[in-house]
Amino acid sequence: MTCHDLFITYVYVRSAYLISRQLLQKGELSDSNLLTLGAFLVLCFIVVLHMFVRDPFFSLMQLTPDEEQRRKLRRERNKVAASKCRVKRKEHVSTLRQASEELESANSQLESEIAYLTAEREQLEMMLDAHICNMEKAAGRGPA
């Protein structure tokens, strides 16, 4: 942001003020003129706000050397903190992935064990049914 840009913005705002003052004095400040003027002033305000808030060069011009040093130090600390945060997040994601893989493996083993035990139970039930039938035949109560 240069001084020239700041001056141009000042000229726009001052022009809008003078035009509105003249129209008001003449009694020609209609609703349409007022809306146009309002839109122009809002645009000027946005430009000025951008210069003061968003433009880093303009912001740095306003800082004292001590404030600038504090700002640089704060940014450096923030950079280090952000880096630590990213590392911790990666470690946390890695830990969660490892735990997820372990749980999936354990789940798979348990499902295999369930299938094995279900098959064994069915086999034992068939053996029990066969044994009961043999006992009933031996006792003479079963079907002939």
Automatic annotation (TrEMBL):
Residues in coiled coil: 89-127
Gene3D superfamilies xrefs: 1.20.5.170
Membrane-spanning parts: 34-53
Domain called BZIP: residue spans: 68-131
UniProt name for this protein: BZIP domain-containing protein
Pfam families: bZIP_1
Entry's Gene Ontology cellular component terms: nucleus
PANTHER family: ACTIVATING TRANSCRIPTION FACTOR 3-RELATED (PTHR23351:SF24), FOS TRANSCRIPTION FACTOR-RELATED (PTHR23351)
Subcellular locations according to the entry: Nucleus
Source organism phylogeny: Eukaryota, Metazoa, Cnidaria, Anthozoa, Hexacorallia
One GO molecular-function entry: DNA-binding transcription factor activity, RNA polymerase II-specific
Key words, A-Z: Coiled coil, DNA-binding, Membrane, Nucleus, Transcription, Transcription regulation, Transmembrane, Transmembrane helix
Primary localization class, coarse: nucleus
